[in-house]
Amino acid sequence: MSHKHDLSMQPDKKPVVPRSEHEKEKIKNRLKKIEGQIRGLERMVDEDRYCVEILIQIAAVQAALKKVGFSLLERHTKMCVLHSVQSGNGEEMIEELMKVIRHYAK
Amino acid sequence: MSHKHDLSMQPDKKPVVPRSEHEKEKIKNRLKKIEGQIRGLERMVDEDRYCVEILIQIAAVQAALKKVGFSLLERHTKMCVLHSVQSGNGEEMIEELMKVIRHYAK
Amino acid sequence: MSHKHDLSMQPDKKPVVPRSEHEKEKIKNRLKKIEGQIRGLERMVDEDRYCVEILIQIAAVQAALKKVGFSLLERHTKMCVLHSVQSGNGEEMIEELMKVIRHYAK
Amino acid sequence: MSHKHDLSMQPDKKPVVPRSEHEKEKIKNRLKKIEGQIRGLERMVDEDRYCVEILIQIAAVQAALKKVGFSLLERHTKMCVLHSVQSGNGEEMIEELMKVIRHYAK
Predict the structure, then answer these.
(1) pTM as predicted
(2) How many other C-beta atoms can be found within 10 angstroms of the C-beta atom of residue C67?
(3) B35, A31: Cβ pair inside 8 Å?
(4) To 5 degrees, how large is the angle CA D79–CA D80–CA D83?
(5) CA proximity to D71, closest of D106, D9, D24
(6) What value of ipTM does the predicted structure carry?
(7) What's the CATH number of domain B21-104, 3.30.1060.10, 2.40.50.840, 1.20.58.1000, 3.90.740.10?
């Protein structure tokens, strides 16, 4: 399997279709909200809050992260993958997409 | 069903078996590490990193959160639930435990 | 770790609190319905049905199985685990319960 | 949103790239094996087998179903979606693909 197909880090790689400033702001705002939720969890531990309350909050953060992940996956598929297939090098992108989905489904 | 059985917020409720300072430190350290990972995600967006790289990192944060959640659930069950059953009011605690698990399994 | 704590097969072990005939019928009916859904999937393949239709049906079967699993887990916890803790040997049962939950959460 | 985009049943729709007889046999064999596992679960209930044993078997069936589902999804994406995009009507197929993935991720 070529190195292009695995999911190792490639820090210089950019989105095939660049994100607009507006898109970037939206994703960052969602992440900042999640960061705040994590700090909220730390406070709950400090305040000796009941286990079940903390667990319910963790489930809320997990749902928020899943949503950000899904919206990135959707944008990647509808923009980057589509564009790559239309430009003729889609097989590799689709191979990679399936790896990401498999990685998530684990 | 009594209000004790639902999963609404009860800010004054404490763990049935109190968490030691050592336990609290351990959980908070794991949460702080996750908070750092979220900030790392924000940086990745700033640096226009490739969608798939960000998705892989989100999956890593999800796995870390799941682990913290599971360890809290395990501690709650082995300490708080067990202790409550042994003290004679376990039915309510087991009812609540199943609600949490159902909430997570959604 | 003792053999009592792992999740290997123990064909002679029975539920701590026996299932009534009514309970057994109910579980078997749900399983028979799922068996029918699987045969429906086989037919869909025979009839060359569209991939997405089959995938939606598979998701339905997965949801049905999850529901049976959850109801068995709930009954096990509320009856067998509770009874074992009340009889004084609950620690082992709770250890085993967490293993099952961890197994499911994988 | 047009009716082509929702996930309602369309019994006359076929795979964009037809399945070979060999492919069909392979999927059916996997489903037949799962059908056998479901019947095994029914027998376990008849034989009063221990709850945890049954739960472990249910988890095995769930894993098997997930695998069949993933392999159908992979084949659909690599064949039907790719082919549709290359033929110029990929946007609809990618829209539908995201709906399926979202449906699974629920």
Answers:
(1) 0.90
(2) 13
(3) no
(4) 80
(5) D24
(6) 0.91
(7) 1.20.58.1000
